[in-house]
Request: fold
Amino acid sequence: MEEYDDLATGPSKDGSLSLSHNTWKTLPSELSDFSMRLLHLEMSNNQLSSIPESIGNLILLQSLDVSLNQIESIDGAIGKCIRLRRLNVTKNRIETLPPEIGNCVLLEEIIASHNQIQSLPQELLRLVVLSVIDVRNNKLSTIPTELSRVPTLAQLLCDGNPQLACAPANMRGDSNLLLACLEMQQKFKDVLDPKELQHNELRVQSDELQHELLQTRRKMQQLEKDVAYLEWERPDR
Reply:
């Protein structure tokens, strides 16, 4: 079959392998044989239903394009691809990005538009060279405000998410406005979170004091009973 002919040739001299526009339903196991040569893998326009655990074998992988498939999940083993710089999962059925993606510390671009993603993992904050996040046309209801503090993040594209509450619709297509909006919200959190923590600490102390007061009252009641009993038992009564 043609797709196996493409696989048999292995990666080109620059480490690229294209298996796009075929009928692959899963990552071929033979890819592991190229783990020390494969740098760029293209498998767009196939019938993939997931990115399986075996993706973790491709330890030198720098770019992965699995757009235009039927992918519903990405295994956490993708975190082993620590040299990954570009991930394209556009036009699939993905509902969440695995938190292990935060281990891909060289990741610069996440292209994940036209999926079913509902939230972004906090672990994205560990990606210190991340420059592009494209999550347009998903089902996002929130995004981490701390993303505004990622110094290299230049594009945050999230229009087409009608349930997104952290930014008005007219800001979602402008990365600069959106990042500024997130930064403003983060500043409010910076102020409010310590106060909330202090409030919670005071509540705990209040509960502890109330418990001690209750215990003291019980002891006093018992002492009063003991005193009354001793008064009753006095010989000179």
In short: The CA atoms of residues 82 and 104 lie 4 Å apart. Strands lie at 16-18, 40-42, 50-51, 63-65, 73-74, 86-88, 109-111, 132-134, 155-157.
